Structure formats: C-alpha cells, structure tokens
C-alpha cells in the first residue's frame, strides 16, 4: 500500500508540472496511486509525468506546439490511462507528423 508521504509526494510532483492543479488529493486519485505503485516505481511514475508535461507543452499556442497530443487528464485519469500509455515511450513518438503504430497493428502486420 502506498504511504501517505508517497501520495503527497506524487500530488506535489503532479502539481509542479502546471497541468491540472489539485488542492487536495481526491479519494479516487489516492486509491489509484496505490494501484499504480504496485506496478510501477515512484521514479517511473514521475518520469511519465515529465513526459506527459513535455508533450502537452502548457503555455504554448497550438501553432507553437511540436507535439500532437492535446488531451488533458487530471491526476486520477493520468494514473489510470496515461501511465500505461506512456510507459516506455519517448517524447519523439508524439511529435507532429510522427506516425505512431499500436502494438496490435504491428502484431497484425507480422501475422499477415
């Protein structure tokens, strides 16, 4: 089980990225931190938060942005959807004009 200090640390780290700010840690986000830290280390989760903040490019206009990703999640949604999506990825995978293939598409091509 994630400790209170780990939960506080992740909340503060998330808020430091200037994405969607949270004043308090909601129960669903708290529970999701516990679930997430069963599969990923604290440093891995922070690394994925860094990646997410990089590709969202907060503060830039759409014309200035280098990355195509625009969907903004709160902390709970990020932990639930974003962590599995961004695990092992690099920012270059989300550059405008870069074609991203899903693992399913690659397997389909190999079995044809």
Structure, described:
This protein is mainly α and 112 residues long. It has one domain (4-111). The protein contains 5 helices and no strands. It has helices at residues 4-16, 27-39, 42-56, 75-86, 103-111. Residues 105-112 have low confidence and may be disordered.
Highlighted features:
112 residues, mainly alpha, globular, disordered C terminus
Mean pLDDT: 87
Q: What portion of residues is helical?
A: 55-70%
Strand content: under 5%
Oligomeric state of the chains in view:
single chain
Spatial gap, N to C terminus:
44 Å
**Unreliable residue runs:** 105-112
The Cα radius of gyration reads 15 Å
Instruction: Kindly name the structural category.
Output: mainly alpha
* Biggest pleated sheet: none
- The SSE string, one letter per element, is HHHHH
Topology of helices and strands:
Layout: H1 4-16, H2 27-39, H3 42-56, H4 75-86, H5 103-111
Compact description:
This protein is an all-alpha fold. It contains 5 helices and no strands. The protein has one domain.
């Amino acid at each position: 089980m994630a400790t209170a200090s780990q939960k506080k640390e992740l909340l503060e780290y998330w808020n430091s990225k200037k994405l969607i700010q949270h004043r308090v840690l909601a129960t669903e986000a708290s529970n999701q931190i516990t679930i997430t830290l069963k599969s990923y280390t604290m440093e891995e989760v922070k690394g994925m938060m860094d990646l997410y903040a990089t590709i969202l490019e907060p503060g830039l206009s759409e014309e200035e942005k280098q990355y195509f990703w625009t969907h903004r999640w709160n902390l709970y949604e990020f932990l639930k959807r974003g962590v599995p999506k961004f695990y092992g990825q690099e920012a270059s995978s989300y550059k405008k004009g870069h074609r991203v293939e899903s693992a399913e598409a690659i397997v389909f091509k190999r079995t044809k």
